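Entry 14. Structure prediction run on the chain below.
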Amino acid sequence: MTTILVHGAWHGAWSWERVVPLLDGEVRTPTLMGLGERAAEASEAVDLETHTADVVRALGDAHDVTLVAHSYAGFVVAGVVAQYADRIDRLVMLDGFVPQTGQAMTDQIGERGPAYIAEAETDPGWRIPPAPVTALGVTDPDDVAWAGGLLTPQPVNTYLQRVRDPVDFTVIEDRTYIACLEPALPLLDESRARVRADGWDYAELLAGHDAMITHPREVAALI
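Output returned:
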C-alpha cells in the first residue's frame, strides 16, 4: 500500500512530517515545484500542470494508492485522477478545493481572484505571498514560529491555469472529504457542498485548515 500526501499552496513536504509516522505502508510526500525546499525553482513557467506532473512522478509505478490532497492540491490531483484513476484506490481531500472542469483556483477564492489576475498581468512571474499561518488555524506559538518560517510564496500561474482534463472524482469509489471546521474557511463552502451532493464520505474535524500540523493523529486516523 502506498500513500501519497500532496501539500497545499505555500507549503511543502515538511507540512506532513507529523502525519507520516502515523501511517502504515509506504508514504510519499512530494514537494511541488517552486515551493518549500524547491522555492528556488519558482518561475512564470510553473503552473497547475507542472504541479500535477510532480504528483504523477511521485506516483511512479505504484498501484493501490491512497491519494491525499490538502487545500489547493484538490486542483492538482484532479488531473492525476483523470489520467490514472485505475491506480488510485482511495482519495482523501483534507479541507480541499474541489474544482469543476475548466475552473481555476481564482474562480474559488472570491475577491482575491481578480486581484491575483491583475498582478499576473503586470508580472507573470509574481508569487502570491503566504497567508499568516494563524489564519490557517495554527495558534500554538512554537508551531506558528516553525510553520510560519517555512511557508513560501506561490507561483501565480498555478492559480490562474484552468483544469483542462474532465473532472470526475466519482470514478474513485472510495473517497472521503475531511472538513476542518474550527474555524471553517468560507472559501471552501462551495467545495463542501459539492462533495456532499456527489456522495463523498464526509468527516468533520474540529481543527483549523492546517490540521495536519495541529491535529496529526486525527488526520492520520481519517486517512
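The mean pLDDT is 97.
Filed with the rest of this week's runs.
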